[in-house]
Amino acid sequence: MKPEIHKVMQTMADRACEARRAAEIRPAEDRTRAIETAAEAMHDQSGTILAANAEDLARARERGRPAAFIDRLELNQARLDGVIAGIRAIALQPDPLGEAIEQWSAPSGVDIRQTRIPIGVLAVIFESRPNVAADAAALAIRSGNAVILRGGSDSQASSLAIVSAIRDGLAAADMPVDLVQHPETTDRDVVGALLSGLNDRIDLVVPRGGRDLVARVQAEARVAVLGHLDGVCHGYVHASADAEMARTIIRNSKMRRTGVCNALECLLVDRDCLDTVWPQIARDLSADGCELRADEAAREAWPQAHAASNDDWGREYLDAILAVRTVDGLDSALDHINRYGSGHTDLIIASDEAAIRSFQGRVDSAVVLANASTGFSDGAEFGFGGEIGIATSRLHARGPVGARQLTTFKYLVSGTGQIRG
Amino acid sequence: MKPEIHKVMQTMADRACEARRAAEIRPAEDRTRAIETAAEAMHDQSGTILAANAEDLARARERGRPAAFIDRLELNQARLDGVIAGIRAIALQPDPLGEAIEQWSAPSGVDIRQTRIPIGVLAVIFESRPNVAADAAALAIRSGNAVILRGGSDSQASSLAIVSAIRDGLAAADMPVDLVQHPETTDRDVVGALLSGLNDRIDLVVPRGGRDLVARVQAEARVAVLGHLDGVCHGYVHASADAEMARTIIRNSKMRRTGVCNALECLLVDRDCLDTVWPQIARDLSADGCELRADEAAREAWPQAHAASNDDWGREYLDAILAVRTVDGLDSALDHINRYGSGHTDLIIASDEAAIRSFQGRVDSAVVLANASTGFSDGAEFGFGGEIGIATSRLHARGPVGARQLTTFKYLVSGTGQIRG
For residues A1 and A60, is the Cβ–Cβ distance under 8 A? Predict the structure, then answer.
């Protein structure tokens, strides 16, 4: 690692530590006000932010980035207004700090109170989606954490413009501006510093990105990581499923937005409804332009489907493609999901309550849905105001991560002179 | 890593995965019964366990291990009875699995239930204290996890004898015996496999040990770690402290047991009570044989104390030694603790409620006590039945870790056909 990068990042982390200690003791209203003034500053500086984004877009087009990449990078007034509205929704969330999670008296007579506190200094490493900078900053302020943001280099100008506005908002609310920082350099050593060079100063790394970033995080991280990995979401249509409900939910789960992590990637159809429900689902999806890759049994019932290969199981297409497999009952569906799922979001459609209970009990994913679209696996839909992502780690937080999930706790033990025997 | 060790550990981890999936769907009573039969089997096999321990002790003495080491390694009937009683206490703990942590209806109308589930496969790496094997096994069974234990090589025979009894207990309750495993080999590559070679199969590593183990974990771990590091516990005597209470609590915190992680290591005395309270504390501790290492101001008030050097701040003595420093009020005490503390357990003695609130609010440790001995920073004292240790990590669990802290959760989302707009 280049020593000058390490030094820049160390200074940034030291400032973040100081800022978060100063912010933590402020009352909840000050954090609320700071998120509101950050939203106002982003609104006032819309012109600057969109101009910076136009620069990024021009450069990305020159570099020949694909259309889907450009789409994720692009801001316009409507999208920016959406981002600002998202920040305002986070300001409306209850302040999590100081909440008594549990409270009890121990046999010795001491009172124990488990109270919610910030995690500390977060590092959020994301790809070229500038809205992530705004969401992550607002969630960090709401939860009393400091955040060091590091966006993809293609969105550098947009990210810096957003962060600059948010820091102006923090200053307007008289809160420490170093709660939100983003390095000026796009040097890749920044990521190395965040993953392993500053592990005494950074409390949690949140990577949001594709396979390359995930691989790097797994190899290099010396700090706690809240992973946001693949969403290989499965939907199982049980023999007891209502055909109409199955059609509607599968269509919405697959086609509402195909590029998001909670989109359906694999449909498991019970053999008992292969000839009844499956062709109706297939007709809808084909009409919507979705490519179907099905096993042999499913192709007999809907011959227009392509043949699936073994590579199709466990794949995250993020596109208008769906893998389809026939299963013999609940156990067979569970076997497939346990083997190929990513622990993100899985779904059963059934009217048999025992089947639903068994599926929800035995599928080991962050979000296990019954009879509702996978689109509900989402922080805003959960009522969290927003999310920093959907965690697929098993520890600390799983599923949608909002402000409250970005906190930890301590135990306050209060006595009247008790000693231990 | 030797390929044969990797293979042995992989097989062990595969069996652990299977066992915990089979155990998770069993009712709570089965887990309770299994812990009880494990305790019975340990009782029935006391002779075998003590004979194995005698072998370990003979070997450890041959190797010239120090007395404190031998003491931690040694079992006798009374100690073993204590361990068995501890296991029975864990059997009496409420089963955490399936508990609804929170439950609400989202604006879309779907019902969301956050439900408690096991973490999965735990690896507990500990030093030569065979009681840890029993505690960790009982907590793992209570929480529906499988555990791979790896004790220090000096306690190998004792650990294997305990694990063998517990597995007999599992079999007697018709539960999968591979919920609890311990490798037959003492090869150090076992630790390497647990830390980094099996990261797709092991969900959490819990290291319990000294600096060497901690350093190795930090360098090698590719899997989530619940750290149990130093307990550099501070006690601050505020100007408003009741002198008698301060004497009693400080004495108990320091001298009840000096070798444990919640023992007091540093006393911070407010300058305002340096001439009044401090000499009384010093007299008690000196009479108990505690060496005092004090700063200049404190030595003026109690000249018999040794002079502290800068090396004494932040040290974990685990012995009858106490560092003593004079501070100018609360902020000065907080500065010292933030700089030298280990985030484990810290204490204030005060009668001024505002000072207590400020101290408990601003000290960033897992357990922050007021007017009670640091000895209460303990799983059994918290009412957890036992503990796998006191976590000093910031995420997931902090402080005493019992069965409930060895769980994670998933969200069950139930709808009636809702799709997302």
Answer: no
Token pair for A121: 């200094």
Same topology for domains A3-226+401-414 and A233-381, yes or no? Answer: no
Residue of A nearest to B411 (CA): A367
CA dihedral A91, A95, A97, A102 (to 10 degrees): -150
Tell me, yes or no, if A411 comes closer than 8 A to chain B by beta carbon.
Answer: yes
Separation CA B77–CA A304 (nearest Å): 74
User: A237: how many CB neighbours lie within 10 A of its CB?
Assistant: 29
**Closest approach of B185 to chain A, Cα-based (Å):** 28
Out of A375, A381, A395, whose CB is closest to B395? A395
Collect all residues with Cβ–Cβ distance below 8 Å to B213 and sequence separation of at least 6.
B125, B127, B207
Name which of B222, B256, B376 is nearest A218 (Cβ-Cβ): B222
Domain at A3-226+401-414: CATH code? 3.40.605.10
* Predicted confidence pLDDT, tens digits, chain A (421 residues): 899 999 999 999 999 999 999 998 899 999 999 999 999 999 999 999 999 999 999 999 999 999 888 988 999 999 999 999 999 999 999 999 999 999 999 999 999 999 999 999 999 999 889 999 999 999 999 999 999 999 999 999 999 999 999 999 999 999 999 999 999 999 999 999 999 888 789 999 999 877 778 778 878 888 888 877 789 999 999 999 999 999 999 999 999 999 889 999 999 999 999 999 999 999 999 999 999 999 999 999 999 999 999 999 999 999 999 999 999 999 999 999 999 999 999 999 999 999 999 999 999 999 999 999 999 999 999 999 999 989 988 899 999 999 999 999 999 999 999 999 9
Q: A233-381: which CATH architecture?
A: 3-Layer(aba) Sandwich (3.40)
* Residue A203 token pair: 């409390």
Residue type, A274: L
Chain A residues within 8 A of B242 when measuring between CB atoms: 417
* B5 contact partners, CB below 8 Å, separation of at least 6: B185, B187, B189, B190, B192, B193
pLDDT band at B224 (very low <50, low <70, confident <90, very high): confident
Which residues 73-92 on chain A approach chain B with CB closer than 8 angstroms?
Answer: none
Could you tell me the residue ranges of all domains in chain A?
3-226+401-414, 233-381
Encode B52-103 in three state secondary structure. HHHHHHHHHHHCCCCHHHHHHHCCCHHHHHHHHHHHHHHHCCCCCCCCEEEE
With beta carbons less than 8 A apart as the criterion, state whether B133 and B151 touch: yes
β-bridge pairing A233-237 and A407-418? unpaired
Please tell me whether residue A6 adopts helix, strand or coil conformation.
Answer: helix
CA distance A90 to A400: 14
Average the pLDDT over B80-103 and give the result: 96
Instruction: Give residue A31's Cα distance to chain centre.
Output: 22
DSSP helix/strand/coil, B146: strand
A249 touching B, CB under 8 A?
A: yes
What are the respective helix, strand and coil percentages of chain A, to the nearest 5? 50, 20, 30
CB A298 within 8 A of CB A266: no
Task: For chain B, give the mean pLDDT.
Answer: 95
For the whole prediction, is pTM greater than 0.90? yes
Pick the CATH number of B3-227+397-414 from 3.40.605.10, 2.60.120.1440, 3.40.50.1110, 3.90.1170.50: 3.40.605.10
Residue tagged 């150090």 (tokens)? B188
A63 torsion bin: left (phi>0), alpha (psi -120 to 50), beta (else) = alpha
Q: Residue A76 to residues A23, A67, A179, A281, A329: CA-CA distances in angstroms?
A: 32, 16, 27, 36, 48
Q: How far apart are CA B86 and CA B387, in angstroms?
A: 10
